[in-house]
Amino acid sequence: MSDIRTDMTITGEGEARFGDYVALLKPRVMSLVVFTALVGLLVAPGSLHPVEALAAIIFIALGAGASGALNMWWDADIDAVMQRTARRPIPAGRVEPGEALGIGVALSGLSVIMLWLATNALAGALLAFTIFFYAVIYSMWLKRSTPQNIVIGGAAGAFPPMIGWVAVTGSISLEACLMFLLIFMWTPPHFWALALFMKSDYHKARVPMLTVTHGRRATRAHVLVYTLALVPVALVAGFTSLGGPVYLALALVLNAMFLHGAWAIWRRDEVLAEADSYAVEKRVFRFSLAYLFLHFGAILAEAALAHLPAYAMLAAHIPLLELF
C-alpha cells in the first residue's frame, strides 16, 4: 500500500475551541480504557488509598488521551479522506498538527511519571509501553503496512486492565493476563465488523484493512474464526478468581449471542448485505461494544459479591443504636 501522507489537504474552519482539544484525546476510546482499567484496579487483590486509586485512573486516562492525540497527529492525512473522521480537529483545520504532537508528548510524559509516583514503577512502565505501542507500533507501522494491523495493534487497547491490576499489586498475574486476552481477542471481530460496512473509507485512505486487501468474503470468515477463538478465553476467565456464577451465566449468554452474530456475518451474501445497508454487520458491531462492557461489569460484580460476607460480618459487630 502506498503512503498518502504527502497528499494531505487540511481545510481551515476557524480557531480551536476547548471541545476540539477534548476530541483530540478520543474521549469515547478513553471511556473504555478508564472502565477496564478501573475494573482491573478494583478486582486486584490488595488495595490502594482512595486518593491513590483516583490518581491512578486519572493518569491512565491521560495516557490514553496522549495516545489518541499522537494517533490523530500521525493519521491526519488518512482522517482527511475518510468520511467517518474528516471532521476531526486536525483535518478540519481547527487544531494544528504541531499542537496535537506537543499535547500528545506532554501528556505521555506527565501520565507515565505521575502513575509511577502514585503507584509503582511497573505500572508506569506498562503505561509507557502502551502509549508507545499504540502511537508507534500500531499507528506509524502496522496500520499502513499489513492487513493484520488490528490483530497485533489490538494489544494497545488490551493493556489498561492489566495496568490497573499492576497499580495495586505491583506484579502481573494469570487474572491480569486473562483480562488482557479478553480485549485482545475481542478487538479483531469488533473492528472487522465495522470495516465490513466502512470498506469504502479504508479503500479511499489506502489503509490495508483486511476488507481492502482480501475482500469482504475473507473478512467475514476471519470474524467467525476470531470469535470462535474469543469464546474459550471469555469462559476460562470465569473459572479463576475473576469469575463466579454471575460471570459464567452472563458469559455463556453473551458468547452464544456473539457467535450467532459472527455466524450470521459469515453466511451473508454481499448483494443482500449491500441491499439492506449492512444491517447485520452494524448490529453485530454495536453488540460487540456491549459484549465487552458487560463482561467487565460482570467481573466487577463478582468482586463486589465476594466482599459481601466480609461487609456483613463487619456490620454484625457494630452495636445497634439504643433507641431509648
Put the structure in a nutshell.
The chain has 324 residues and is an all-alpha fold.
Secondary-structure blueprint:
Layout: H1 18-24, H2 27-43, H3 50-74, H4 76-81, H5 97-118, H6 121-145, H7 149-153, H8 155-158, H9 160-169, H10 174-197, H11 199-204, H12 210-213, H13 215-237, H14 245-267, H15 270-275, H16 279-316
How many helical elements? 16
Number of domains: 2
Fourth-tier CATH superfamily name of the largest domain: UbiA prenyltransferase
- The CATH class of the largest domain is Mainly Alpha
User: How does the helix and strand content classify structurally?
Assistant: mainly alpha
Summed over residues and divided by their number, the pLDDT gives a mean of 89
Helix content: over 70%
CATH topology of the largest domain: Tetracycline Repressor, domain 2
In terms of DSSP E residues, the strand content is under 5%
Shape: flat
Distance between the termini: 82 Å
Number of strands: 0
- Roughly how many Å is the radius of gyration? 22 Å
What is the ordering of alpha helices and beta strands?
Answer: HHHHHHHHHHHHHHHH
| CATH second-level architecture of the largest domain | Orthogonal Bundle
Report on the biggest sheet. Answer: none
Spans with pLDDT under 50 lasting ≥5 residues? 6-11, 310-318, 320-324
